[in-house]
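Standup notes
- DV: blocked on the single-chain target, sequence here:
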Amino acid sequence: MVFVTGGSGLVGGHLLIQLVKQNEQIRALKRANSQFKELRIICEYYQMEFDKVMAQIEWIEGDLLNPESLNNTLAGIHTVYHCAAIVSFGESSPNTLLQTNITGTQNLLEASLKNSISCFAFVSSIGALGQSQNGETVTEETPWNLHNTSSVYSNSKYAAEQEVWKASGMGLPVVIVNPGIILGAGDASKGSLLLYSKFKNGIPFYTPQRTGYVDVRDVCRALIMLVHQKVYNQRFILVSENLSNRELFTFIAKAVGKRPPFISVGKKGLLFAKGIERMITFISGRKPLLTSEIITSAVKQESYSSEKIREAYGFTFTNMEETISSSIHLSI
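- DV (later): unblocked, structure below
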């Protein structure tokens, strides 16, 4: 039997469907207040009945921040797929993000060691990778910058990944994947799919950002493949394409029949907009959207290489234009 965290979310939901299709026995963690809106959307995407999918999963109520609830939960489990995380786009508090992404992972690793789990599969992030210094492509071997302050999210995923490596050193076989920004069918009101909802009506502006993107289905396929082939104690970047914001927003605009962006906005323009927004939010009392972290991200340019998994296993990725066009209408 396998155990899945984050089953009500984007990656965990798609993973559950792929495991159900493979006739795996599945136990999944849910909170007392878990909502299954996203899983319903995902089931519709795969043309599977939500109730039938739910009936094939043994749902266990618990919390990653409550270690006592995890020990008995892992009895009889051979593989843990840890997909639960908070993906920060400014909607979560730093403390909540750090607790969920780091402490929650620590608790699950401790329970896995106690239960002699055969494999711990961890969905990390490109945020946990090193940063290029001179514009070179980032690989699995790019060193981490100890002074990295790019985002709370990146630092939380790096710290969580270090906990996974520690458990590996204690004898726990681990599989680690580092996906780019994950897109696909799901709930566009949260996480990475906010990109769909924010730009579904088209916008004229784009920023210089360039980063890696990947289809959620590819993330799940790669994770299952690495587990089944027992590719332990390695990490693999999962990026289909490195896209600029202009390219990404054009794909989104094209999918919904809107005009692509045509006005470039750099860091100076964003800082000016931040100043205007600060005055407006001071008067209205609303939370500002343009934080320093978001502005830094909006002008950051990185490229990531997935050659390791492509060359070693012949893994192929879905192109992102197809990912967006096939999933955006169901998601928004």
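- Follow-up: DSSP finds 13 helices and twelve strands in the chain.
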